[in-house]
Every structure is written in C-alpha cells, then in structure tokens.
Model the fold of this input.
Amino acid sequence: MARPTAAKPPARRPPALDLPQATARLSLREFTLGDLPALAGWSADPRVTRHLLFGPRDAAAARRHLEEVLEAQSARVRRFWELAIERASDGVVIGACDLTLRSREELEVGYLLARPYWGEGYATEALRAVVSAAFSQLGVTRVVAATAVENARSARVLERAGLRWESLLRAHARGRGRVWDVNVYCVGRDDWLSGNGA
Ligand SMILES: CC(C)(COP(=O)(O)OP(=O)(O)OC[C@H]1O[C@@H](n2cnc3c(N)ncnc32)[C@H](O)[C@@H]1OP(=O)(O)O)[C@@H](O)C(=O)NCCC(=O)NCCS
Done:
C-alpha cells in the first residue's frame, strides 16, 4: 500500500482587489498622476493632517508621495493599496483610503477626506466598501484601524462602519516631533458577515 503523503495546502493566489470598487455614491480607484492637484490640496491642509503622522506636505512632498503610490501599483505581489475616493456624481476626487496587508490574515485601513467633503457620510461609505472587499476579495480574517486618541471624528467613522474598539496602544508611534497614543479598532470576518460588526 502506498504510504499516505502529507496533504499539500491549497495554493493561495496573490492578493488582488477588484478595482474600481463602486458604492452608492463613490468609486474607489487607483490614483493617477492627474490626481496630483486634489492630493496636494488635502495634503497641505493642517485641518486634514492634524491627527495624522505626516504633514502638512508641501507640493513637492505631495508629488513624491503620489509617485510612491503609483509605483506600488506595479508591485509583483501587492500588499499596499492607496486608492482615490472619487464622487460618482461629478468625478471629483474627494479623498483617499489605504489598505495594508500586515499579514495574510490582517488588513490595516486608513482614510481621509478633503475638508469640503466632511459631514456627508462619504468616509463611512468608503470604509464599508473596503472592509467588505477585504473579506470577500483579499480573504483576511480581520480588519484593523489605528487612530490617534484625540481623533473623535475618525472613531465615529470606524464605529459607524462596523468596527469595535479593541485596545489602546500607548506611545505607539513617533512622528512630527511627538509620540502618539492610538486606539485600535477591529472587525472580524465572522462578525462582519453575520452583520454584528458593531
Ligand atoms: C476622519 C474623517 C474622514 C471623518 O469625516 P466625516 O465627514 O466625519 O465622516 P463621514 O464622511 O463618514 O461623515 C459622517 C458625518 O456625516 C453625517 N452624514 C450626513 N449625511 C450622511 C449620510 N448620507 N450617511 C452617513 N452620514 C452622513 C453624519 O451624521 C456624520 O456627522 P457627525 O459625525 O457630525 O454625526 C475626516 O474627519 C478626515 O478626513 N479627517 C482627517 C484625516 C483623518 O483623521 N483620517 C483618519 C485617520 S485614522
């Protein structure tokens, strides 16, 4: 009798996202160089970057950042996506969201909107689409987001989108001449699929 051979784990495809991702009012798509004016606009706005580790960025730094984002689009195995959030009704690029695969099982997300587009529910709508794609397309088991403890608007977005507070990480990050305490929010695949995200 042939000796049983160890079962080979099924081959995993490289992570891929279907883009653009459409929501009721938005399209999440790859950035292009033509998006530089929009990106440079919010990057230079201290109200947008107040709780972020970077910024405000000048025009040259914004361009360098966009070039890095474009370069990441051609990575052989993709682990990072920074996507433009485009409003479907008029094609205006209102912000950005980023997705980073920390491991096979964990995706970290971030988002921002240019100041004129706060208060309309766009960030929550974009984040919900990203979380959904993380589970259905990237196959992760958890989605996390880290937000500065002072960033109350961001905490509300995370809760509305179905993530729950998980932990407080003290002195977790260093940037812009200070050390940041951050709250970590999370949603697991099973809770998301059963509608019990938050
Ligand atoms: C964090 C950030 C994206 C949140 O923006 P926001 O406008 O508060 O969030 P949303 O787009 O989800 O909008 C929600 C608000 O719109 C209101 N709203 C209006 N129409 C709505 C609709 N159709 N659906 C849902 N909410 C709607 C909600 O009541 C809510 O207002 P409230 O918080 O005063 O109750 C924004 O403040 C930002 O870009 N900040 C700078 C970058 C940043 O800090 N990013 C987070 C890093 S972790």
Remarks:
- The pocket of coenzyme A is lined by residues 48, 51-52, 110-113, 118-124, 145, 147, 151, 153-154, 156-157 (CB under 6 Å).
- The chain has one domain: 21-193.
- The mean pLDDT is 94.
